[in-house]
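Why do we care about 3D structure at all? Because function follows from shape, and shape follows, mostly, from sequence. That is the central idea of this module. The next example makes it concrete: a single protein chain, its amino acid sequence, and then its structure expressed as tokens.
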Amino acid sequence: MGRVRRVRVGPDLRGDQLLLGSGGRRGIDTVGGSIEKRALAGDPAIYAAVWTTGLLKVVGAVLALALVMRWGRRAPRRLVAVLGWFAALVSTAYGAVLVASGALVAGGVIKPSTPVDRKPLLWHLYLWDMSFLIWGLLFLLALWRFPRSNRPDRPGAGSGETDR
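And the structure:
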């Protein structure tokens, strides 16, 4: 039997987002601000945004796996690489900016003009925003290890011989 690998494929793919998108309230107090208020009020735009970002996270997870799994080599290399670089740079930049600004607010270096709810601030700083930063850095690592070409793994593969 082969080895079994467990992989965390992306931030927030535990079902919490799907629960929120279906009207659930678990974890909403970690979001904070106007988004929390709108979600509690049942704003359909929030539900649409939650489902859209949930779908994007699933696509990102498949892309991440395509970068590191053998089956990903069957996809067009340039497309996988371009999408991977886009995901890596956007996730890293998004996470870095939000983690840095959250840390400055949490540390008292920046004083917001309105009061800040500490619970959502800390949840964002240590989990939600940090997960984007880490995920972006892991995308960069996967891209660094991504095959430079679609060369087959073993001699004879792809040369007309039947792969078994």
